[in-house]
Amino acid sequence: MKSKVLKDFDTNDRIVVLNPADGDPRDPTTQLAQVSVAQKRLLVNVVFSEALVEKGMVGFPPALAKQLGVKSKKPVSIAPRNRPQSYDIIKKKYDHKPWTNDDIRCILDDIYNENLTDLEMAAFTLAIQYENLTMEETENLTKGFAYHGTQLTFNEPVYDKHSVGGIAGNKVSLVIVPIVAAAGLLIPKTSSRAITSPSGTADTMEVLADVSFSAEEIQEIAPKTRGMIVWGGHLNLAPVDSKIISRIERPLGLDPESIIIASILSKKLATGVKHLVLDMPTGPGTKLETRAKGTSLAHKFVEIGRRVGIEVECALTYADQPVGHAIGPALEAREALETLMGKGPRSVHEKSVELAGILLEMARLAPKREGSRLADEILRSGKALEKMKEIIEAQSGNPNIKPEDIEVGQYTAEVRAYADGYISHISNTAIKKIARELGCPVNKKAGMVLLHKAGEFVTKDTPLLRIFATKESHLERALSVANNSQMYKLEGMVIERISAAPID
Amino acid sequence: MKSKVLKDFDTNDRIVVLNPADGDPRDPTTQLAQVSVAQKRLLVNVVFSEALVEKGMVGFPPALAKQLGVKSKKPVSIAPRNRPQSYDIIKKKYDHKPWTNDDIRCILDDIYNENLTDLEMAAFTLAIQYENLTMEETENLTKGFAYHGTQLTFNEPVYDKHSVGGIAGNKVSLVIVPIVAAAGLLIPKTSSRAITSPSGTADTMEVLADVSFSAEEIQEIAPKTRGMIVWGGHLNLAPVDSKIISRIERPLGLDPESIIIASILSKKLATGVKHLVLDMPTGPGTKLETRAKGTSLAHKFVEIGRRVGIEVECALTYADQPVGHAIGPALEAREALETLMGKGPRSVHEKSVELAGILLEMARLAPKREGSRLADEILRSGKALEKMKEIIEAQSGNPNIKPEDIEVGQYTAEVRAYADGYISHISNTAIKKIARELGCPVNKKAGMVLLHKAGEFVTKDTPLLRIFATKESHLERALSVANNSQMYKLEGMVIERISAAPID
Prior knowledge:
Two copies of one chain form a homodimer.
Chain A lengths: L1 E4 L9 E4 L13 E6 L2 E9 L8 E4 L1 H7 L7 E5 L5 H5 L10 H12 L5 H14 L3 H13 L10 E6 L9 H10 L4 E5 L9 H5 L9 H11 L1 E5 L7 H14 L4 H14 L2 E10 L8 H18 L2 E8 L7 E2 L1 H12 L5 H17 L8 H10 L2 H12 L16 E6 L4 E6 L1 H11 L8 E4 L6 E2 L4 E7 L2 H13 L3 E3 L14
Parallel strand pairs in A: 1-5, 2-4, 7-10, 8-9, 10-11
Antiparallel strand pairs in A: 2-5, 3-4, 3-6, 12-15, 13-17, 14-16, 14-18, 15-17
Helix pairs in contact in A: 3-5, 3-9, 4-9, 5-10, 5-11, 6-13, 6-15, 10-11, 13-14, 16-17
């Protein structure tokens, strides 16, 4: 069979079109098929139309063609989907039975090879949510995720820092990586783009330099600069995990603990990480709402890390409000640079040296509890800033960029205090909503700066927040959200005044 | 918008086609939509093609058009799918929390109204599989299933018999209904067509009479004849349950206990049943592999029945082998008629009078433990046969049909004993496989007759099984399965002879 890209058949679903002469539309087994093009394979739904494709052709909608790298008239093979061996293994959980290492490997192989339908993958993912995996199963899941896809290899141990997500304004990686690299350790950090938060580390770094590098490029550059900050999504790390996330977890808003652990540690395994500090933001509005939850998850991370050969130390971090003042890619990049120059906010400086210090201790460059002091020295000495310039240059950015050179949105407005009071809370959820209205993280220049933070006393009409937008309409929508979302909570305020009985 | 039936776009998936002018193919929210035509609503995937539909038209593939009763140029409304309120309720089970009655009603409403995707429905169904519902939740699920769809109402209590599936050759309903109706009780039995077994009660009855009747027809005919045997699938009983079965349970091979109970009892609630005898075939190859499982499920059925106002008595029945000798719609209809004429196999006779007897006891027509004697009297007196003729006539069949008038497949062959021995086991699974090769239950004339049953001693080459096929190719395939499946297990046989070391 030959491929045909269908300009006139548009869908984001995984559907291909055959001519009725090439299959029996009434046979239900032909409705689901495995399509292979070059090295790629995908499970697709098959529809039939004489008008859209000639006999002998497999028609691909444009989005799917792009995903598979299909051009017209390339050889394609299409076969009825094999009944997956692994589905019987998934069903063991219907009877609450454990999965062996071979079981998990078999399931993940079938997901990798596109032998499982979304429903069957959901049965697997929901088994993990409902049944809770044992430590042994989680260990095997971690190794299993790391098995498929890209493997980065280095001739020395890799150090890394990772955040268990969920908090706005977390630009500390841009400070930690140069500190650790300046100390001589190897830290080629792969990071993600934001999905629901205003800016991921990769989005922020992209303001300063390129972040898309191949495995070969990273393996060549990182040993020289000692540090990099790149986008991991480009690298095909743990692709089975990515399929589960995009097809099941995201549509269902699902995030089972064992997959959180396996997802993070498998990517670390695949990138050669041997020592890892995990930033675990804890508090309302984060994944870890209570300290007890944070501690429990941390213990599991340490144990699974031990089992797969990664030294893990977790730091439960304060996350009642954003770290620093800046939110949004450009503004965060600016704040990170300022911190490296010694003039950033105290919270960014402190969190960065604390987490970097843990890695320095793991490397025996400092005694226990003394790592943050060494990290602080490196930062204050200007060596971290020099290292960051080196990294930016190696990643094709401008090493001499100054914070004030970074462009931000030209439409600005302020949100002011509606009463006198102490700021008792700043809502992470409200920040995310405002950032979404501004178009972050795609709109790199958009964002906001918190002018006052929790604990401070403000008088009525004091500016609390400055918003930066790239379009006037964005600014208006963001302001409307900011004014309606109780983003700042002021103690002593009047929440509501009632002067009449409610209308029924 | 107007509908268009697309002769040249063939799929069994739920897909509609729009002209790109009527939506934005790049907007992911337009890829999933609710389509409403007349009273019917469905959640569909949307694809775009200028070639297939003009602006202002919604194109339906033929199978979907048929399902929705769509003809070309009918008004259709299509709207982006609403985010379901109920999904947050489903997610309560991720934290192992109970569902209230309102919770369950809200979820089922959203399934009924096509607000949930298959993945979200899977999260619901798998929650029930993994988490096990409480009795209260199962009660609410039962009432919830019964809420939507058709309700049959009668001016008197309805009696019913139902089998918890999974056994071949179970034609006893065709004997029980006329016995109970002859005793004066109202028993309008709705039954199913077979999915994986050789013949469902509706398939077997259809050999003798029509089985598709509207709710109004049943409400009119049944009070006169006292009994009917109709196809329930025609009636839109508990449609939410049906959606869960066809979209989730069947593709996943899933059958959680709470849904087994709710599925059966909800249909009984919707048809006005007040007294129910449940046939629970127990043994290897059935749903209830052990007696302990059968007893446990029976207790739950009785309790949920009590809570929803149905008196339930369960009979765990012997199911190590088929009841009677005949398998397949025509052969089973023949055997049921023979039993009503007093010349059927003992196992069919016994099982029928035992189960009918329980209903007679519930109606106080016989004292406890004496019901089967009364049922036996009714059967032997010929009153049940007369009643069956009356029912067949009322359902537009030929009341004077004789067993030998029923046509069966003209291609026949026998399977013979491969050794001397006692028949220790007849495999239900093998019977199902053979029947599938013969095309049962669609091929009504195909089937098989067991010439000897478990416990009997047979000598080598004794005919054990006679197969009836409507095509020679079917016969060959069925024979091949019969000879390779160890359908009959003979004690003392040589299973395998080994004269060389295995090749590695």
